[in-house]
Amino acid sequence: MSNLTKQEVKKSVVYWQTVAKHDYETMVGLFKLKRYSDSLFYGHLVLEKTLKALVVKNTGAHPKPIHNLSVLAQDAGIDLSKEDREFLAEVSKFNIYARYPDYKLSFYKLCNLEYTKPRIEKIKALFKKLW
Which residues form a coiled coil (predicted)? Predict the structure, then answer.
């Protein structure tokens, strides 16, 4: 990772936070439309971009171009509970399940209201906690 100037850090953090907020609104909208698997995919994006903002803020360097939330949290140097770390590992899978055809249909079938609602609520809570 390369070191950034203070101005570059500020600009990068604002960028990641702005796109995370946009994806948060998309996640909420998709959930309201009952597009549950898509809302969880966007939930992953929300947390990914929030963690990338924290990586930049806490390290002064660009985040790795990865989607693994657990690694990003570690790179950001943030202290999370075991429950939060386990949840990040679960949400990281949504990126794969919603994207690749081998998993997409089974994930779509899994994502009913009962499965999705508590996970969306946890994503919202973690987003607010990390913010």
Answer: none
